[in-house]
Amino acid sequence: MIFTLAYILMHRNIEPIIRLINAIFIIGLIYLIIGMGIYIRNVGLFKTFRYWAYKFKAGAYKKDRIGEVNVMSFAEFTEVITSEKNKISGKYYFLYGVPLVSASYVLSFII
């Protein structure tokens, strides 16, 4: 992705203003993708995957330790990972990504 950005910025046949608009769009798109990745990590099916990983690391699935390992229930685990101190916020990525993509969209119609 970095090489694409560098190619767009350095390509000589494209006007400088169009290169700037393309760079703004790519940077905004990167911010949006990171923000969506963080959002998806905090909801839904990925909580289940994180719980399975937690149980696997605790050794709950080993044959010789079945019934001996004390792990949290899924509800307790969900409360722990969704608490504010453990939750990763993607708010700042959306705050920068949406205006950059919108600005590039508007500028592309003006130019």
Looking at the chains present, what oligomeric state does this protein adopt? single chain
Question: How many helical stretches?
Answer: 5
What is the H/E string?
A: HHHHH
* Mean pLDDT level: 78
Total beta strands: 0
What is the alpha-carbon Rg in Å?
22 Å
**Silhouette:** elongated
Approximately how much beta-strand content do the residues carry? under 5%
Q: What low-confidence regions span 5 or more consecutive residues with pLDDT below 50?
A: none
Secondary-structure-derived class: mainly alpha
Amino-to-carboxy terminus distance: 25 Å
Number of domains: 1
How would a crystallographer describe the biggest sheet?
none
The percent range for helix content is: over 70%
Question: What does this entry look like structurally?
Answer:
The structure is a single chain. This protein is an all-alpha fold and 111 residues long. It has one domain. It is built from five helices and no strands. Helix 1 runs antiparallel to helix 2. The chain is elongated, with a radius of gyration of 22 Å. The two termini are 25 Å apart.
